[in-house]
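re: ur question from earlier - yeah i can do the single chain one, its not a big deal. heres the input i used so u can compare w yours
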Amino acid sequence: MCNPCCLSQLACCCGSAACSLCCGCCPKIKQSTGTRFMYALYFMLVTVICVIMMSPTVEKEMQEHIPFYKDMCETLKDGEICKSLVGYSAVYKVCFGMACFFFFFCLFTIRVQSSKGCRAAVHNGFWFFKFIALLACCAGGFFIPDEKMFLEVWRYVGAVGGVLFVLIQLMLLVEFAHRWNQNWTSGVKYNKLWYAALALVTLLLFTVALGALVFMGMFYTHPEKCFLNKVFLGVNGSLCLIVSLLAISPCIQTFQPMSGLLQPGVISVYVMYLTFSAFSSKPIEHVVDEGNITVNVCVFPFSTGSDKRIATGVGTVILFLCILYSCLTSTTRRSATALRVYRNAVQENERARCCFCCGDDTDDFDEEEKKTGGGQDVMYDERDGTIYSYSYFHFVFFLGSLYVMMTVTNWFHYDKAEIEKLLDGSWSVFWIKITSCWICLLLYMATLVAPMLCPKRFEA
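and the output i got, formated as tokens:
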């Protein structure tokens, strides 16, 4: 029974066939989705390796539990603890290899419009050989001469790429907010319950945003210290209120009758999250109490012992899930178009769905165009042409590689970076996140005002 599936997996790893699971009970999968999932799997594998490299705890466990660890390191002429295989320099080299891998495929797949060519076949298959190539690229980073110069130059390249990836994330969020509102609003003419769903979710979003504002006001402000926290909390809270009022103002409603409070609700929650993350990333401030004892103020409530490790672990998981979502979602045709121009009209075939964001670019395809090799069915949805830009897809993963590198190594505070100290303070991370708040608000404000200033450009 397993022979057809084994042959199918072999064709996937060593040929251009689409990948699938061996279990026939699994739901059918589209070829384009499977391809993106495989690249995401490679991306996450390297990301996990980078996290491990930045963890002194893991390094210590390796020294204690791997047999002949010291002998192996001495054989490699890297000291007793293999210093070059851990720390920020190792993460820079591994991410350099991953970035080179995706950048090569970005150039290799430029202007690929059909899935029937040899370049498309390489993109969609040959996973074993691509995995070997990825390993070779990551390992090759450790043989780069003049390491000091390389790390210095690559740090600034990573900073630029990381900032560009943040911008894509923010544009994607604004597009997500508009798309959510459009999708659910399109269902109102068929079922009035979508009105109730919109109202309930909008109320929930603003409740969360207000709750976050109160929470930060209680734990991240102090009568004598944390002046910047007070200023930015007031500024960001006021800007969220302004964009909410602007979204339902008559001048905006004239040009965008579908504009409502759902979009500013999404933006407000994300801005409050970024503000909280920025405050948590700021260097700790101290005050001397009446007993002449130095006390930390304006810190995360769970910042000691096991609570801190739990918070750091959860924060790391959320961070990389957001990165993965941005890499995959921003490369669909609909999202990529939205990054260039936002149109207010609802598509004629728009269907209201609770999980609208999980829909792919093509929902209709010929049921006969599928593979049944004894396992999961694969729908070949790119028979008539590619449904997303291969080159742009790899470019986003290239930027994502640089963003992972900078985030894991704490941006410009790389020399003392540890994954266990992800929530510890650093001014560079603080200002990046505060600036991201303002850029996000400006982008959303631009989508509201632009159709009013250039109505012909934004007509459906």
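Residues 170 and 440 are 6 Å apart (CA to CA). not sure if urs matches, ping me
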